[in-house]
Amino acid sequence: MIETLSAVQDFATLAAAQIPMVDLPDSEPIAPPGLADIWNRVVGVGKWIALGIAVLGLFIIGGKMAYDSRRGETSEEVGSLIKLVLAVSLISGGVAVIGFIIG
Fold first, then answer.
1. Which of 22, 70, 79, 103 is 20 to 30 Å from the Cα of 9, by its Cα?
2. Low-confidence ranges of the chain (pLDDT < 50)
């Protein structure tokens, strides 16, 4: 069985090496006329709304953490805080990727 898989892998490697490579021109991404400004505005507004919600979430988590620290229970809030930091990272990273694509 292993010999058969090895032979198939060797055949696939040789077949892929025979495919000619075509150099395609690398063009810059260009938004359709009139769409770039609208798109940038929508992405910008979405980013600020999402980050605003994240800041409100940070306040809520901080308040819960302060309230629960009197009882000695803060483990749930630490998990929420980690999720919030990951969410902010995803929001910022998504905006950066969209900005790179749009140019």
1. 22
2. none
The alpha helices in the chain, defined as continuous H runs, are: 2-17, 35-69, 75-102
Q: What angle do CA 95, 99, 101 make, to 5 degrees?
A: 120
Q: How far is the C-alpha of 54 from the C-alpha of 56, rounded, in Å?
A: 5
Q: Which tokens belong to 62?
A: 């901080």
> Is the entire prediction scored with pTM above 0.70?
no
Question: 15-31: per-residue pLDDT in tens?
Answer: 766 667 666 676 676 77
Which of 63, 59, 55 has its CA nearest to residue 91? Answer: 55
Question: Is residue 90 a contact partner of residue 46, using CB atoms and an 8 Å limit?
Answer: no
H or E, element range at 90: helix 75-102
CB 98 within 8 A of CB 36: no
pLDDT of residue 94: 79
